[in-house]
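Submission sheet (multi-component)
Chains listed below:
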Amino acid sequence: MLEDNRIVVYDTTLRDGSQGEGLSFSVEDKLNLAKKLDEMLGLAYIEAGWPGSNPKDEEFFARAAAGELQLKNAKLSAFGSTRRANVLPEEDTNLRLLIAAKTPVITIFGKTWDLHVIRALGTTLEENLNMISDSVAYLKKAGREVVYDAEHFFDGYKANPDYALETLRQAHAAGADWIVLCDTNGGLLTEEVPGIISRVKETIPNARLGIHVHNDGDLACANTLTAVRNGAEQVQGTINGYGERCGNVSLCSVLPNLELKMGYQCLPEGNLKNLTEISRYVAEVANLSHNNQLPFVGRSAFAHKGGVHVDAVMKDRRTYEHIVPESVGNSQRVLISELSGQSNVLHKAYQLGLQMHKGDAEVKEVIEQIKQLENRGFHFENAEASIELIMWRTQPGYIAPFELRDMLVLSERRASSNEGLLSEATVKLQVAGNMLHTVADGNGPVNALDAALRKALVVYYPQLDAVRLTDYKVRVVNEDGTASGIRVTITSSDGHEIWQTVGSSTNVIEASWFALADSLEYALVYHLFKQNQPEASALQTV
Amino acid sequence: MLEDNRIVVYDTTLRDGSQGEGLSFSVEDKLNLAKKLDEMLGLAYIEAGWPGSNPKDEEFFARAAAGELQLKNAKLSAFGSTRRANVLPEEDTNLRLLIAAKTPVITIFGKTWDLHVIRALGTTLEENLNMISDSVAYLKKAGREVVYDAEHFFDGYKANPDYALETLRQAHAAGADWIVLCDTNGGLLTEEVPGIISRVKETIPNARLGIHVHNDGDLACANTLTAVRNGAEQVQGTINGYGERCGNVSLCSVLPNLELKMGYQCLPEGNLKNLTEISRYVAEVANLSHNNQLPFVGRSAFAHKGGVHVDAVMKDRRTYEHIVPESVGNSQRVLISELSGQSNVLHKAYQLGLQMHKGDAEVKEVIEQIKQLENRGFHFENAEASIELIMWRTQPGYIAPFELRDMLVLSERRASSNEGLLSEATVKLQVAGNMLHTVADGNGPVNALDAALRKALVVYYPQLDAVRLTDYKVRVVNEDGTASGIRVTITSSDGHEIWQTVGSSTNVIEASWFALADSLEYALVYHLFKQNQPEASALQTV
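Outcome: structure written.
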């Protein structure tokens, strides 16, 4: 048994998480992700694939076993199902592939719900019990730690409690090291959890229990925490809540609640502060936008917009922050806008490590610029990189890495041609004392402009090769239709950092140009400025 | 008192929701959203703004009071704070603006947490009690229904329970119709809810309680449901969980849990099935991607990826679906049945007064076209004029009022000139047998294109003079940045009718052209077709 306050963390991002719509990891991705999860979080188990379901996962386990994956903290687990009906375990391909994966841990799921046994599996309730018992015993005999996932446990219990509990008793009696209660369909209500778990504990009092839930009812986090309070020692989940349908429970929500609020220990001391970084890293590898609103780790999780909130937070962070953001590696963001005064700018300057003080000419200049640009339709709340550039540009010795002279963008469609609409852009740029003149075409005028700019810049700044525009948004600022002010917000990434820039103009091309130019300038200079920043620990005293 | 199983729904998408990062609604947006929320959900209260905090909200309430907003079900509420310290209620600007908003309901928040009273407000605990009591009494005297939001109630209770409860007692004694317990910082644990609410009920046993929570701990939905189980009769939340930081609780999660699983009634019978549509509509207006993973209403919520799941679901939907997706207006994503497609189109045809019947070639053609266009990134949920055009075009005798042949759009900026960026468009159009070739400049390429088109068309169709583009929105459809599919949605008006059209392409100019052309075509033909339509009263029986 573990100490009372220790919770074992079981990550299934690479297996159940990868079932999410739009997710697909290569073998290389999985090897990298497993290493990162192990190093940064140091969690107990990493479930990395289902060797019986696809050859990619077989390859993963073969390469891991061959020494490509050395884990310091976590045990690797291979996932599969109990044997098929009416087959001996040693003759079951799926079980054989699990053994062949050579992981210290094997996780198998079995059917709990009579509806599934009869309708989906097409076998008898009796044979299903044998399948569970045989399969667990077989894997234990092979010397593996066995995690038994009771699929649809809660639905099964509600439909036929005696049968559902009997499946658990079989798995436990056959030697399973863990009995994991799964809410596979994700529809469980939090209020149902304590009663059901207490029946499980009466039935198999010596079993170590785990919890595995999905978020279809928007209750995954609450259900997991409630299960822990009622005796579950292992929590299964995924980074960012990736997974089939509405996703698995997010470890990024479960872990900070358990550690910071409920007094449990889940990760080795000090690792919780890597949570935000791992969350963004996994999103990057998955090629999905990182959801700003994610609790604890989202970009907006500690962002303050209203003036009243900003004022209060600067007096005392607790007034509008439920935890210290740095404890999960996130940080406070004061959203700067026209309405914000000197104190917002000074706060930002402090975060950036810039020497600015109340009443300085630079501070007034920054506020004045923001005011003028917001009058022209800029909106900086969602474009911190543009704000940082404005602040850096006031610093002595700052030299812009390039300057635009001329541009010409055209889009053409002819009924006489089959080419559809063609876009082409010409730019003339001053870079490091040289005048560059380039042309490129693209899918649309902004894409062509981007291509022409990079064609010139990449010669001097090869690091721009890694920079990608990940999102592009356009809005009309006032309401007179196409002749109105237009605001463009661009999100960019170089694989490590994500930043947003803004441009506004009556002309969408010009607005795009402003945002694009800021994005590339930021990519070229942010490294220099990051060096000045104070330690997170210093920020906590603010 | 309400019947036992009735829950009152209070929507604050337009106020607290709009505090979310990246959200900004125009007055026009808010008027449209309020109408939709009222019609489609029929909820009890719509909190639409904070007249004391910005002039845009003042304008909203002025236009609503002047008759621009007629609500059938909901009561409109204006939001604000208790009076300032040491000021009479009648001299407090904020309270005066609340009265001036002329809404039947006024919601004010007051401070519960001693930390806030002293640190943020800088007044005494005693004066804060007076501020609450005076303000509620003043608004009640003015004849309004008063909702009292106890800001930071749960944190305040944990810090100083007696004082927190005393603030509620003051609000209740002064006549507040509702006492709403707010978890403003969103850090509340679900397990803390029952004990705290039971203390509240001991303190003010006759008060009607509401619950207002944020999602910073990923527990907003569970906390709301638990509060209802423990006696809260009103739930406050936003569509899609928009709101400051990690957002407010999502009504899209709370309502189906309460109605489908817990036996409560929240909306008029039959309205829950509009939930998915309103969820996507609000995202469209906010110009935010609709999150696929959203419980109940997300595109992925009932999408089955794994082969085992698909197979089981086709045998019995309950095997991997926690509710019937249609009960919230969502659908399973395994098979898109030709039948459901047909009936949707037939329903729309009936609304338009078109003669279409099951199995007609026109019906199949419409479905086929929609399918193809949606594959190319079109999205018709917020562009009914484009859908109507597709249907009309299948009708015998329909003649398009114009046809585009060629276009050339260019944007140019020269460092040697002071002109800024210039945009110019050339179009060649076929109109009523004649070829027209026009050129115009504009503020940006789309505006230039619009100007060139009108220059040609207005000669034949002078009524286009009255048509204005009132909004223009651009969205990246997938997520590879500026080279991705781009969807343009245009809102137009001729002073009587307002309509929306959509275009999609990899090229923003082409996407704009599609939406623009539909907009002008709709302007020219809708009069003809309106004549065929059945009376609104007949439509209600459909």
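Remark: The domain at 403-530 of chain B is CATH 3.30.160.270 (Double Stranded RNA Binding Domain).
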